[in-house]
Amino acid sequence: MAQETLQTLYVDELKDLYNAEQQLVKALPKMAKKAESQPLSDAFTNHLEETKNHVTRLEQIFESLGESAKGRKCVGMEGIVEERAETINEYEGAVLDAALISAAQRVEHYEIAAYGSVCAYAELLERSEDLGLLKETLEEEKRADEKLTELSESANQSAMEGGEQESTSTAVAPRGPSRSRKARSAA
Question: Would you tell me how many other CB atoms lie within 10 Å of the CB of residue 57?
Answer without folding.
Answer: 18
